[in-house]
Amino acid sequence: MDFKSKIKTIEWQDTYSRMVDQTIVPYEYRYVNITSGDAMFDAIRNMIVRGAPAIGIAGAHGVILYAQELEKEKFTREEFVRKLIEKAEYIKTSRPTAVNLMWAVDKQIEVIKASDSDIEGIVEELKQKAIALENEDIEINKRIGDYGAEVVPEGATILTHCNAGALATVGYGTALGVVRSAYAKDNTIQVFADETRPRQQGARITTFELAMDGIPVTLITDGMCSYFMNKGMIDMVVVGADRIAANGDTANKIGTYTVAIAAKYHNIPFYVAAPLSTIDISIKSGKEIPIEERAHEEVTHINGKPICPLKGVNIINPGFDVTPHELITGIITEKGILKPDYKESILTALSK
After folding, report:
1. Residues 167 and 294 in one domain
2. Residue 127's domain spans which residues?
3. Distance (Å, rounded) from C-alpha 70 to C-alpha 126?
4. DSSP states along 157-226
5. pTM of this prediction?
6. C-alpha closest to that of 152 among 237, 278, 276, 55
7. How many domains does the chain have?
8. How far is CA 139 from the centre of its chain?
9. CA-CA distance, 315 to 297, in Å (whole number)?
10. What is the tens place of the pLDDT at every residue in 183-218?
11. What digits encode the pLDDT tens for the residues 1-35?
């Protein structure tokens, strides 16, 4: 049975990008229209759109938006191409950790460099490429889900951390894609969702998605995962990824590394679900992955209200951590489940 998610996160609409504003979920479920390149930069940076695959599509849309703006200027074709590539490189800097952003923008740069068209033609080619990437993302996620469902035990309780669902992609999900595909075959599957401090993506978004789709979900705080593992109430862990190094080390939302350590101690399988585009073979290990440092207010405030003294307290707020490859049972991709040795299995998958 093909699971039909009700969510479409991001979509190109003729001259603008339409996306769910994830800063207000679950209080509201509302679409916003992004109509300029700088507005897209801000939407990515400020997490109106989030999740590595969705950020990638947003970046591809951002290139179109900048192209539309430059098209209105009286540039020669050569000047247009040069300035557009500069803008494309700029939008990559909006979120440094999620490699899908760089991957998707580079796909658009390839279109620009390979085109024989005039300025108007280049803009149209960029639109068609972005739409193709959107459609491809959904199909890739469904394949990831189906491969992942094969390793989900009957009646399993799956622990997630952060959100890697439809709202983190174009419309199906990576980690939650595995959940959706597994649930389509076995409706006794259920999920425990970590709240995921400090932005509460698990509490605000994962539970929202699963409740919308009718999949049983229990919300727990980040510090509770070991308690429930020890009680035998967690059968496996599935998380997404923002960047995977050539050796399998995986950057994901802060707190993932802690969950992986706990899973290893309790002999619980720990899987990463991600498209091959999340793998960055230019990076040998997780030590080379840049980790985004985010605003202190994410830690000190909830819903605009301070939860700690604002003077005399130091704050450090890394957005991601890196889980070493030896803690990962398998990496679920659109070409199957990669197993250790990850250096070898990653290169094999990328060469297919």
Report:
1. yes
2. 10-141
3. 13
4. EEEE-S--BGGGSSSSBSHHHHHHHHHHH-TT-EEEEE--TTTTHIIIIIHHHHHHHT--EEEE-GGGHH
5. 0.87
6. 237
7. 2
8. 15
9. 9
10. 999 999 999 999 999 999 999 999 999 998 899 999
11. 455 556 789 999 999 999 999 999 999 999 999 99
Structural domain includes residue 5: no
Burial class (CB in 10 A: 0-12, 13-18, 19+), 263: buried
What is residue 149's predicted lDDT score, i.e. its pLDDT?
A: 97
Please indicate whether residue 137 is annotated as part of the active site: no
Q: Of 141, 174, 197, which marks where a domain is finished?
A: 141
Is residue 148 a contact partner of residue 273, using CB atoms and an 8 Å limit?
yes
Can you read off the two tokens belonging to residue 264?
């290893």
Tell me whether residue 1 is in a domain: no
Same domain, 319 and 273: yes
Q: Is 2 among the domain residues?
A: no
pLDDT in tens, 318-349: 999 999 999 999 999 999 999 999 999 999 99
Annotated catalytic residue: which of 213, 235, 242, 280? 242
Domain boundary among 114, 141, 168: 141
